[in-house]
């Protein structure tokens, strides 16, 4: 008596292509301000990161850079490039970066759906 194995090749299921959730989107006001900040004789880009700081635990960190690090996510929108630090990707995923000016201040504001709690002043958050 012989045991014979029958190999059955399953038909490959069609691949479903799902749209990728944007890491970060920029409002028109943010695009205008970023363009003004990065235009100049030296090419530079703004990198968005997160630092452990503040009463709720995390705080956004914006800095200038001239090069992309190995695992940075590059966002290009309306002619402006922003880098997102690889350590901040999960915290920033799906956020909107806006630029807001009023009589007392002018600042970038992040509308982040991942925030579970933030401090009273709005400078730090927890995801």
UniProtKB/TrEMBL annotation:
Domain Core: 24-122
UniProt cross-references to SUPFAM superfamilies, sorted A to Z: HesB-like domain
Cited Pfam families: Fe-S_biosyn (PF01521)
A Gene Ontology molecular function term of the record: 2 iron, 2 sulfur cluster binding
GO biological process: iron-sulfur cluster assembly
Entry GO CC: mitochondrion
Domain of life: Eukaryota
PANTHER family in alphabetical order: IRON-SULFUR CLUSTER ASSEMBLY 1 HOMOLOG, MITOCHONDRIAL, IRON-SULFUR CLUSTER ASSEMBLY PROTEIN
NCBIfam families membership: iron-sulfur cluster assembly accessory protein
Family named by the database record: Belongs to the HesB/IscA family.
Functional description taken from the UniProt entry: Involved in the assembly of mitochondrial and cytoplasmic iron-sulfur proteins. Probably involved in the binding of an intermediate of Fe/S cluster assembly.
Protein name (database record): Iron-sulfur assembly protein 1
Gene: ISA1
């Amino acid at each position: 008596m012989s045991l014979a194995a029958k190999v059955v090749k399953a038909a490959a299921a069609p691949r479903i292509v799902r749209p990728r959730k944007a890491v970060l989107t920029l409002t028109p006001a943010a695009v205008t301000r970023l363009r003004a900040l990065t235009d100049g004789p030296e090419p530079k880009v703004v990198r968005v990161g997160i630092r452990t700081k503040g009463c709720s635990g995390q705080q956004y960190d914006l800095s200038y850079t001239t090069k992309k690090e190995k695992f940075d996510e590059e966002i290009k929108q309306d002619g402006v490039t922003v880098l997102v630090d690889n350590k901040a990707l999960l915290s920033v995923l799906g956020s909107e970066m806006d630029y807001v000016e009023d009589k007392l201040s002018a600042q970038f504001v992040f509308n982040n759906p991942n925030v579970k709690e933030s401090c009273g002043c709005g400078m730090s958050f927890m995801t």
